[in-house]
From TrEMBL:
Native source species: Methanolobus sediminis
InterPro entries: CHP00288, NYN
Protein name: TIGR00288 family NYN domain-containing protein
Acidic residues bias: start-end ranges: 166-181
NYN domain location: 26-156
Amino acid sequence: MANVKTGLNSIVKYLSTKKETGRRSIGLLVDGPNVLRKEFNVNLEEIRDVLKEYGNVKIGRVFLNQYASDKLVEAIENNGFEPIICSSDVDVRLAVEGMELVYNPTIDTMALVTRDADFKPLLNKANEHGKETIIFGVEPGFSTALRNSADYVILLENDEMNYYDDSHFEDEDDDDIEYPTDNDVGKKTHRKKEALIDY
């Protein structure tokens, strides 16, 4: 089982140590009906801020169904994302847009915000074509198949951000990063900003 690391500063450091020479060009796709719910308290502004430490978010799209409120659409636009209103299945539209990112030569990294295992083939195709993949998953209900398919996994749970790290690396120069034991995983170490949007 991978070590679980906790805290926003730790996640920013985690992504910054993984990046290659130069900043990455990121395409971010958000599965709105699946994750933008009151019970999850997902904050898109915070996700964008974490990704900005790693690279430049060139594409940021939030996929919504036809029942999305005007207030939600406005909040998404105010956060600098492009709302995509789908009259049919949101998953199909997100998968099509995701495949466009896979074949987009200007995008190095694909980031998905979802819990849905339906996007595992999209991640596999992105990896096959040399794209880095980052998943922001939400508990409860985050797919293990997704977690095991992405290069980097950031978990949004109980108002904190954690990440899974298989490398077991530790940086002796950074004393403010805590690496929790299995007993510490449930403790809150970073309170997220209040979510700006929800379904």
